Amino acid sequence: MRYEGLVYRPPSEARSLIIQATLSCPHNKCAFCSMYKGRKFRVRPMEEIIEDLDSALEVYGTGAVRTIFLADGNSAVLPTEKLVTIGEEARKRFPDLERITVYGSAKFLVKKSQDEWRQVAEAGVTRIHSGLESGDAATLEAINKGVTPEEAVEAYRHVKEAGIELSVYLMVGVAGIERWREHALGSAAVLNQAPPDFIRLRTFVPQPRTAWHDRWAEGKLTLLSAYEALEETRLLIASLHGPTQLLSDHVSNFVDVNGRLPDDKTAMLARIDQAAGLPLKAFRPPTEKLIGVGL
């Protein structure tokens, strides 16, 4: 496959065929993110995408590819016709294909009508990974996410009602100890108004050469300890109504907490309470020890 630059994908796409439909990210201003810095966003020509699908078919055959992830960041911005064509061409080559997924920030999801999203879903692009990071208005503004809590609710309802599966990411600790409570409660408020199919947790680790790393280095953002991260996560889960599947499927997290809401809420809270009684050495190293480490 032909890849330009480092290619990032969600943990749940580990077994997916990755096709770069876009390069970099059209927003590329998030204060915590270093993934696409110094790279200009552009859309790859359809001819190249088709060539990559043909190369994958030659290498893997018709039955091996079950899922495809369209990198890079926010490939949901592709024109409807292009997403539909990619889906149709992929399904021609891989008849056992179960889904095609993309990254899509709430900022961009409302730019297509629900009818357009239905066309995209019918073509096989049926899941969107969306980084909300926080539902706290002040935190969203500070990290320059480009969306308000109200706009996130509107965007998530928009694609869900069109039949698209939605996987939303939250960053434990991204607001620091300074706004941990507002972050947890605000995030729950957004996701209760627009419950996604999946809520995926990962813990904030400052990335060098980002504004949020500088904020931490200047003493304006206090990283959460293991116990503080558990307290924030507990408040989040206790405040969520669902229905949704919550997953801690990332190595950055201090404790894995997984379950279906509301059915498994009591068990998940008990898991957190049990972990809160463990000695500090039972957890991964403190977050500041992970800075600069590829996760």
Main sheet makeup: 8 strands, mixed
What name does the CATH topology carry? Answer: TIM Barrel
Q: Element order, helices and strands?
A: EEEHEHEHHEHHEHEHHEEH
Q: Can you list the strand order of the major beta sheet?
A: 1-4-5-6-7-8-9-10
Helicity range:
25-40%
Instruction: Name the CATH superfamily classification.
Output: Aldolase class I
Mean pLDDT, nearest integer?
96
| End-to-end distance | 23 Å
- The tally of domains stands at 1
The best one-word shape is globular
Strand content bin: 15-25%
SSE topology sketch:
Blueprint: E1 17-20, E2 22-23, E3 42-43, H1 46-60, E4 67-71, H2 80-93, E5 99-103, H3 106-109, H4 114-122, E6 125-133, H5 137-142, H6 149-161, E7 165-172, H7 180-193, E8 198-203, H8 211-217, H9 226-239, E9 244-247, E10 259-261, H10 265-276
Helix pairs in contact: 1-2, 2-4, 6-7, 7-9, 9-10
Mind explaining what this structure looks like?
This protein is α/β, with parallel strands linked by helices and 295 residues long. It has a single domain, classed as Aldolase class I (TIM Barrel, Alpha-Beta Barrel), CATH 3.20.20.70. It contains ten helices and ten strands. The strands form two sheets. Strands 1-4-5-6-7-8-9-10 form an eight-stranded mixed sheet. Strands 2-3 form a two-stranded antiparallel sheet. Helix 6 runs parallel beside helix 7. The longest helix is centred in the first third of the chain and has 15 residues. The two termini are 23 Å apart. The mean pLDDT is 96.
